[in-house]
Amino acid sequence: MSGEIVEVGRVTHYFSRIGVAVVELKAPLKIGDRILIRGATTNLEQTVESMQIEHKPVEEAGPGQSIGLKVKDRVREKDIVYKLV
Fold it and tell me: Which of 29, 45, 68, 79 could bond 39 through an S-S bridge, CB–CB 3.0 to 4.6 Å?
């Protein structure tokens, strides 16, 4: 871990009832990656534990795909998702 952060996507929607963010990816993301979600009032760091595409669990996803990402806390539309590398 060099402590570098790489932008991987942006939150386009958040479902507060189920704690899931919809993220439009611009870089690959997979289960086990450490991510940081930042915005005007958001600063959340967590490990990717659950990801879905069209309600089906996936291990990884790539640029141009929209994923449902289980998050531990509230996030907001337009928050930026970074991968810690």
Answer: 79
CB 77 within 8 A of CB 36: no
Side chain identity at residue 52, one-letter code: Q
Angstrom distance (rounded) from CA 1 to CA 11: 25
Could you give the 3-state DSSP secondary structure of residue 82?
strand
**DSSP symbols for 22-60:** EEEESS-EETT-EEEEE-SS-EEEEE---EEETTEE-SE
> Chain centroid to CA 24: how far?
8
* pTM of the predicted model as reported, rounded to 2 decimal places: 0.94
> Distances from the Cα of 11 to the Cαs of 3, 14, 53, in angstroms?
22, 7, 14
Which structural domains are found in the chain, ordered by start? 5-84 (2.40.30.10)
Other C-beta atoms lying within 10 Å of the C-beta of residue 71: 25
Q: Distance from CA of residue 17 to its chain's centroid?
A: 17
